[in-house]
Amino acid sequence: MHQGLRSPDAFVLRRCQILLASDRGQRPAQIAATLGCSSQAVRNALHAFAAQGIACLRSKSTRPKTLHTVWPRERDQDLRALLHQAPRTFGKPTSLWTLELAAEVSFAQGLTATRVTGEPIRATLQRLGIGWKRAKHWITSPDPGYARKQGGVTA
Question: What global pTM score does this model have?
Fold first, then answer.
């Protein structure tokens, strides 16, 4: 334990400080106040030591144990097919797909069980190798009558 006090790893150092303070008879609240951490962190370290022994000095992975994907992989090609159609096909008032609109239509068409955001749609498109760029509304035409035509005014 005393060697751990010289460790370059902050996790090992903190755990050793906690365990040695506990060995001196200090309570978790006192240890927490001394070390500037929460008393729950102290209790977690003590419980880990009781369960694992000296092995508790090695930090564990912080990655989640299970990954819950929002977009079902078996629906990837359905999304590709959906985006090859115009949004107006699905009763939308625009001809440009947005990620949020694709998410909304995907849910309405039953591709997902719950309403998703645009991020799973973007990630799925990236996985499929499809680049996504937001539609730009500032594109203009060199046509002299472009503004008049866009405004819906007829001459």
Answer: 0.49
